[in-house]
Design a protein that fits this description.
By secondary structure, the protein is of the alpha/beta class. 15% of the residues lie in helices and 25% in strands. A seven-stranded mixed β-sheet has the order 6-5-4-3-2-1-13, with no helix packed on it. It has a six-stranded mixed β-sheet with strand order 7-8-9-10-11-12. Helix 3 (193-203) crosses helix 4 (221-232).
């Protein structure tokens, strides 16, 4: 299995990267986490030979804006979009006249599944979805397949659900919107590198990947390296993500 970071910025695109999107490739299926503008690069990696599953964390535009490029993709084995209750209505409004192309018009089948509390959708992998702490409803995901665990948690402040989702994860991806030492806004929770590392320690994760960098606080990639250094003081296996970065899960 291979993990590819396609978008590692939060909020808006800059020369440091696109907004959030992560691709997990396995022999049986492809999984995408979030659809920021990094999603526009998906067709460079997916050949359409496997079913595709797209997990949406929440409805802020930096996590959805790439969906307007869906028509250029070809997923003959089908695209399943999964998210919180209300996902179908939100996408039908966003991806329809006058804003974009309706999902029903694509040349491949698209299915939307809303993840209700306690439900276990029929998927070719084990999935846990739990609410995170943000300005509005937001889900974090834990995916277990081929003996490996991959966790995706953004956008969020520190919370016990993030620790639960990342428990002994082989790869734990979480946000680092705030610069080292920055305090979160009480109405708009996010993490700084030390808080992200704290979650990784408490969860006994194997590797921490920092993503979703606020470009106003991280204007260059060198600023991300400072976040990596800060996180490694607490959790040595920390990595500051950048667009195009790859991780292997053997």
């Amino acid at each position: 299995m291979k993990l590819i970071l396609l978008g590692t910025n939060g909020w808006f695109d800059t020369e440091t990267g696109n907004t959030p999107c992560v691709l997990l490739q396995t022999e049986q299926f492809d999984v995408i986490f979030d659809a920021g503008y990094g999603f526009t690069k998906v067709d460079r990696y997916i050949d359409g030979s496997k079913p595709v599953y797209l997990f949406l964390s929440h409805f802020h535009l930096d996590h959805l804006i790439g969906l307007h490029t869906l028509p250029k993709n070809h997923f003959p084995r089908g695209l399943t979009i999964l998210g919180q209750p209300g996902t179908k209505d939100a996408l039908n409004e966003l991806l329809g006249p006058p804003f974009s192309v309706p999902l029903s018009t694509h040349r491949y089948p698209v299915q939307i599944q809303e993840l209700m509390n306690g439900t276990r959708p029929h998927l070719p992998f084990n999935l846990t979805a739990l609410p995170l702490v943000h300005s509005g409803p937001c889900l974090g995901y834990r995916l277990e397949t081929n003996g490996k665990v991959v966790t995706y948690c953004t956008d969020t402040g520190y919370c016990e659900n993030a620790v639960t989702l990342a428990h002994q994860a082989d790869l734990f991806m979480t946000e680092c919107a705030l610069a080292p030492g920055a305090e979160p806004h009480p109405g708009w929770p996010h993490l700084n590198p030390a808080e992200a590392a704290r979650i990784a320690v408490e969860a006994q994760a194997q590797r921490l990947i920092l993503i979703h960098f606020d470009p106003t606080q991280y204007p260059t990639l060198s600023h991300r390296k400072l976040a990596e250094e800060e996180a490694r003081k607490i959790f040595p296996q920390s990595f500051a993500g950048y667009d195009g970065m790859e991780f292997s899960l053997k």
